[in-house]
């Protein structure tokens, strides 16, 4: 917990949230920082299905909400990305096109564009702590590992310092980038 904790520090299932980043310094605003995540903005984008680049509504059509993942099926388990749990929020059409052009990570990893008909909030991604087992009775938590994703019903959730929301991508249709850019 935080010593000056307030209600906004708690998320779903009373999970402890990492606080948002302060606004970017003047002169550095308005430029998308693809590799840097503003945690409060990320969680809001997931909750409300907003584009994580511009903050407007993510694009949606009859197949569902538009998502870009920084991976390709060849590197993944069969069936991917159905039910993939992702910390990437959805995107709008304009930002999807721009991200594919400008984002160095997407170029390096390859990417997959998809529609998701039934995205479902799954849990949180963050740093997992536990009781300090080397000091019996110690109330202080000890670091276990970062980059941990836990479902809302995971019994370890109270020990996760939650940076980002994780979404389960259910009802996935993989689409072609060309269709994506030229779609109405
Ligand atoms: Zn956008």
Key phrases:
184 residues; seven-stranded mixed β-sheet; 4 helices
Describe it.
The protein is an alpha+beta fold and 184 residues long. The protein folds into 2 domains: 38-121 and 168-182, no CATH class; 125-162, no CATH class. Helices cover 17% and strands 33% of the residues. It contains 4 helices and 7 strands. The chain has helices at 39-48, 93-102, 104-109, 177-182, and strands at 16-17, 60-61, 64-69, 84-86, 112-131, 141-151, 160-175. Strands 1, 2, 3, 4, 5, 6 and 7 form a 7-stranded mixed beta sheet that branches. The longest helix has 10 residues, at 39-48. The N and C termini lie far apart (47 Å). The chain binds zinc ion (ZN). The site of zinc ion has 8 residues, from helix 2.
SSE succession:
EHEEEHHEEEH
The number of helical segments is 4
Low-confidence stretches: none
Can you give the helix content as a percent range?
A: 10-25%
State the major sheet.
7 strands, mixed
Provide the structure class: alpha+beta
The number of E-state strands comes to 7
- Which molecules are bound besides the chains? zinc ion
Number of domains: 2
The portion of residues forming beta strands comes to: 25-35%
The separation of the N and C termini measures 47 Å
Mean pLDDT: 85
Rounded Rg:
18 Å
Shape: elongated
């Amino acid at each position: 917990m935080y010593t000056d904790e307030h209600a906004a520090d708690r998320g779903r299932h009373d999970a402890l949230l990492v606080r948002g980043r302060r606004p970017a310094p003047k002169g550095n605003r308005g430029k998308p920082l693809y590799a840097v995540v503003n945690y409060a903005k990320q969680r809001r984008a997931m909750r409300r299905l907003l584009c994580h680049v511009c903050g407007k509504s993510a694009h949606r059509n009859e197949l569902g909400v538009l998502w870009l993942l920084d991976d390709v099926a060849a590197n993944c388990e069969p069936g991917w990305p159905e039910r993939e749990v992702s910390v990437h929020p959805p995107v709008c059409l304009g930002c999807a096109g721009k991200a594919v052009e400008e984002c160095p990570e997407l170029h390096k990893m390859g990417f997959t564009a998809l529609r998701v008909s039934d995205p479902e909030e799954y849990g949180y991604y963050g740093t997992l702590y536990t009781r300090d087992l080397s000091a019996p009775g110690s109330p202080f938590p000890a670091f276990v590992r970062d980059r941990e994703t836990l479902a809302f019903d995971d019994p370890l959730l109270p020990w996760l310092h939650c940076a980002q929301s994780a979404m389960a991508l259910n009802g996935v249709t993989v689409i072609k980038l060309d269709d994506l850019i030229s779609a109405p």
